[in-house]
Amino acid sequence: MTRKTQREKQPPDPSRADWTHVDTKGRAQMVDVTPKKATRREAWAQGTVRLKQETLEKIRKNEIKKGDVLSVAKIAAVLAAKKTPDLIPLCHPLRLTQIEVSFSLDPEPPRVTILARVQARDRTGVEMEALTAVAAAALTIYDMCKAIDRGMQLTDMGLLKKTGGKSGPYVNRGMTPPKIDSD
Questions:
Q1: Domains and CATH numbers, the chain
Q2: Residue 166, class by beta-carbon neighbours within 10 Å (0-12 exposed, 13-18 middle, 19+ buried)?
Q3: Tens-digit pLDDT profile for residues 42-97
Q4: Catalytic residues
């Protein structure tokens, strides 16, 4: 019996009746957002790159041999937010209206904190786009600095806040937004 035949012969799982991203046979599917109204959506996400003090200073002074780390990370974040549905299989393509990316360089412990804010007027939220922007910025910082600091850690990534949509606003009380001092 083939894998496909085995799947088709399994009865629907009643415990999954309220799952939004699976069909009646338990297979992944994209949610139909056609009936939803387009509303203003906004999400903030953040993440941290922990690194050596020397690496942080080289970033601050723009002395990394690959170039201006924060400018390249910002471009990567914007591009990644726009490409989120190409990276995350069940995300809808959205008409993003604004993407802002900021960085905070903090000496103790040495780290770069990344903050991304994404906006759209659409039928579904922009949380994944904000998180993808942060992840791409963090990965870019790692890539540009790895020659001098392979021990960097990408940490504390998460959704800070979101507004819009049927579920209403959300604030992650477990995360503190960074103080932004450079961009």
A1: 46-168 (3.30.70.640)
A2: exposed
A3: 999 999 999 999 999 999 999 999 999 999 999 999 999 999 999 999 999 999 99
A4: 143
